[in-house]
Amino acid sequence: MSTNHSTKKSLYSHLSASERGEISAYLRMGKNPSEIARLLGRHRSTISREIKRGSVSQVQDKNGKRIYSTVYFPDSGQRVYETNRRKSAYHKLSYCSQTFFKELEKALKTKPRCHSVDSFVQTYREKHPLEVIPSTKTVYRYIKDGLLRVKPIDLPKMVSIRKRSKVTPKATTKILGKSIEERPECINDRSEFGHWEIDLVLGKKTKGEAVVMTLVERQTRFAIAVKLANKQAETINRAVKSLLSQYPIRSITSDNGSEFSSLSDLKGVEVYFAHPYASHERGTNENFNGLLREFLPKGVSLNSLTTEELNHYVSAINDRPRRLHKYKTANILFELAQTA
């Protein structure tokens, strides 16, 4: 069976005001988005998005009862479209606020830095609503193209992200305690405060090297880091036991490393173990460790690291506004959760 492949370039165009009028008419006739798409020669997703864009909620009073309904209005769809078009204009580098770029460079090169590109863009935009500010994506493009003094190497995450090769899990019979499969749903969906993930950050992989133990609270992403002399199970347990009296720790989720083999012996805290070779099951902690690596690179000895330096690095990350939390910091959310 032969297949014909067209080399004609597809031409795309935005919906016109008259097409919006036709959509409204077809909807009144009872036609669904797929039928309207065929009649107008458009993709059904285009029609569905337009209906959503131009729909307005209405309230009708029938026999003393309020009935809520959603109705599509072509004028409303056109107005939203025109507003979005005005906002979507591409800002050339010369049109953007030069003060913004100076402050961006200063914020991203501060050691340790508290801002990511995204958090700085949003914070600066809120403080200076009248200035022309490029989007986060545009700023990254400027950095990649070498148009700013900030370089990709100044943003470790920008150059470290790479495609991971697929690893086939090896069978294991090691059982250290409760499986993550037994973890309650209130922990899985992060609806309850006080549940943490634990891991170690290593420097040089030689005997006698210090390590950093990190714990991250799943709901707020607030992190704790403690320097330890070694990664023996007894050392880990003593450190965790000390933290139990200082922080609201209801449960801990760990990997299957031998250094965490005695965590189940701790009293007053539930301990769950992730599946082998499944670091994504502790993604919150893994992400924090990646951010901490900006200050503690792999292969560098941690023996000379001071507690003050480590606390300074962790505070910088905890004070970083995050899109996930509508640009609130982990520090603020952790304080609010404790008083709730």
TrEMBL record:
Keywords: DNA recombination, DNA-binding, Transposition. One of its GO terms (biological process) is DNA integration. PROSITE patterns: INTEGRASE, TRANSPOSASE_IS30. GO terms for cellular component: cytosol. Residues 180-340 form the Integrase catalytic domain. It comes from the Bacteria. GO terms for molecular function: DNA binding; transposase activity. Required for the transposition of the insertion element. Belongs to the transposase IS30 family. This is ISSag3, transposase.
